[in-house]
Amino acid sequence: xxxxxxxxxxxxxxxxxxxxxxxxxxxxxxxxxxxxxxxxxxxxxxxxxxxxxxxxxxxxxxxxxxxxxxxxxxxxxxxxxxxxxxxxxxxxxxxxxxxxxxxxxxxxxxxxxxxxxxxxxxxxxxxxxxxxxxxxxxxxxxxxxxxxxxxxxxxxxxxxxxxxxxxxxxxxxxxxxxxxxxxxxxxxxxxxxxxxxxxxxxxxxxxxxxxxxxxxxxxxxxxxxxxxxxxxxxxxxxxxxxxxxxxxxxxxxxxxxxxxxxxxxxxxxxxxxxxxxxxxxxxxxxxxxxxxxxxxxxxxxxxxxxxxxxxxxxxxxxxxxxxxxxxxxxxxxxxxxxxxxxxxxxxxxxxxxxxxxxxxxxxxxxxxxxxxxxxxxxxxxxxxxxxxxxxxxxxxxxxxxxxxxxxxxxxxxxxxxxxxxxxxxxxxxxxxxxxxxxxxxxxxxxxxxxxxxxxxxxxxxxxxxxxxxxxxxxxxxxxxxxxxxxxxxxxxxxxxxxxxxxxxxxxxxxxxxxxxxxxxxxxxxxxxxxxxxxxxxxx
Length: 539
Ligand code: PHB
Known about the structure:
By secondary structure, the chain is an alpha+beta fold. Helix content is 44%, strand content 19%.
């Protein structure tokens, strides 16, 4: 519970906070907060950087487990993407979450002027097209909860993803108007089977949503087509899109009847990992935290609803321990229980998912490069092959780097470019290309030997790294290895640059390669988690 409070406080702070501020926000003792953070750091869910704690990409494992368990992005996402392509408008999937709605997929064609929601963002039900569809199924208790929330928070301050309501809307008369409008829209949605959004979130933003039902008739999620008044008025949007939206919903409902996919264990750590961590970190590893969070990753593809025994088996926990963890998680809203089956709840996405969504490859790589630079006492950098311009695929661009903490360190500025064949990262990336392109003319200093570039790239492929000595610039030596995404494609290269300083290449290799390979593996692990449901942008 306390670890979840730390993660929520860190999420509320935007993903980074001074540990002292977390202590204040959670009311925990400093020593407790430190132990929880060190446990979460071991799990890869946070990083501690000096006085700050930062959400780390590994935390996306939890949200990924929820999304994989629902199967919605996997099964319906491609259909949503196709609709977005057909209509050339944004299309999203949202699920009901209490008296709100939460986005689980976005196919964004967002143009200027409107905000885009991230996966995991929570909106009040009354401020979007899907909410009226979900509320059509509400029981009196749900309406009571909704009225209580509206009374307590008339400006929607508790929903950081939406612009707050103005003073007029937040005043009692405004709140009454909003309540009357919502109940009318819910009744209309129930009757029509679709629901409009006429600028409920912000001026200009309009949408139409339809529910997607499971074979038993329950509403699983809603598909929205989102546009802007500069393209469609709210009144005209339904005519323009409803026909195609209906076809997509039919295809989605069909997709939901397909047999559930084979169970996959996406992100589970064995009990032995917890024991080893405890042995290593002692009081800095709170086992109950690791056990509780392990329960959330017991869910996944083909594992939407699990019995207590299945959770115990998947996590390697005794049944009594698994039961206690499930009771705590259910109490906090992260899992639900019905008929002896436990399911993850959309609130899992509250744990930093939206904050970590926009993570780019350089941002993801930087902490690993910093650790590498510190370890080898040399400059570390990440480079990609350029994809644009006349020199596309022939030039490497350094996207981020961390200089060594020494006076005479090699500095490579982010954004700087170099001919790919003359640099270690460039050769690694050229060697990884499916079919090596035509050899480019080589720079004067590039010693490629008589066989030229193709033979050299064969060597790089065989070695799994490139070492380039004195070729681009006298005295400079660099070593690089590839970084692969979850599909196995080499998307970047991580390199260490150093002054040759009289050492033979073998000495540099011995000093640098193991750390370099571990760094690439760590970046790849983050990339696998972060790229599960979202493309990770390179620049
Ligand atoms: C969105 O996906 O951004 C969206 C969906 C439904 C709305 C508004 C925005 O009503």
